Amino acid sequence: MVDTVKIEERACPGGIKLGVITLDAPKSLHALTLDMIRAIDGALVRWASDEAIVCVVLLSSTDKAFCAGGDVRSLRAAVVEQPGVVPNPLALAFFEEEYRLDHRIHTYVKPLLVWGGGIVMGGGLGLLAGASHRVVTESTRIAMPEITIGLFPDVGGSWFLGRMPGRSGLFLGLTGAPMNAADALFAGLGDYFLQQEERAMVLEALTLAQWQASPQENHQQLDRLLRGFSVPASLLPVSEVRANFDTIAVLTQAPTLPEVVAEIAAYDGDVAWLQKAAHSLAKGAPSSAALVWAMRERTRHLSLAQVFQLELIVAVQCCAHADFAEGVRALLIDKDNTPRWLPASLDDISETYLDEYFAAPWTQHPLGDLH
Question: What is the pTM of this model?
């Protein structure tokens, strides 16, 4: 049993149960460790074949965050300890099992509710994005800020960013710009807007609901219950993505990455959200920007399983390149916020260099069984 993940089965009328998984690592904002990933996945596997479990809920123990991402500090330490080892054993285990969990969430047959209140970043968004019922609240703050640490929007990001309206997913992937609840609803990352303070009340209502034997009927039951708690749309915050949709379209319409980056960097309007986004891209890793662009092109016609398979190759290769360790050092270890990216600019990134990130360091794919 992992003390940072609480797994419960709550009794409902008629001898059936609600499966509840609570992330409980508040000091790290519930950042995912490999042990936490294994605990969550183990519960989902067990409950999938347990007829007594009719619905699963995944949430955190605090209002401040649902999950701030993966434990990149530990990943960096492992990479630094074993330079030149590709794939790094911990990195391979972490990303393989994380993506397997994310894929399971996307394809779970029983209704799966994720309560995405507070901070939802990186790996946390991987848990939220694929759930059948996704709750966002007034405190929701979503981002995929991998460009700041030499990674790329993974955990299925290559799948859901490409399915957002227009080219907003490309913009969000390049800039790591934050999203609120209204943005999540607009971009397809959330389904219901509820008040954060009603979390316990919703859980109580779930244990009293009239569940059925059919997963399909239970999906509908959960939908009705959550819509009953939903806050009127008039109380939603302003969606920055929606409000700036036309501007984003103009900034990202060029046919090449250098042109798009130049357009975003040259933004001279008065919208603070767009200004910060342009600043984040300018300070971010050029290799990450190149990967966002390349993944968008390469995953356009891939299945969900194929997306996770490609992401695993790129993720372990990111760990083998200098920018990941340097980005985590600058942002989270030394906190000097002055990363020395290598390559230092997009002009220095050749096709040959970029191809290194897509070279599978194995003969048999660890996620080859996904479909």
Answer: 0.97
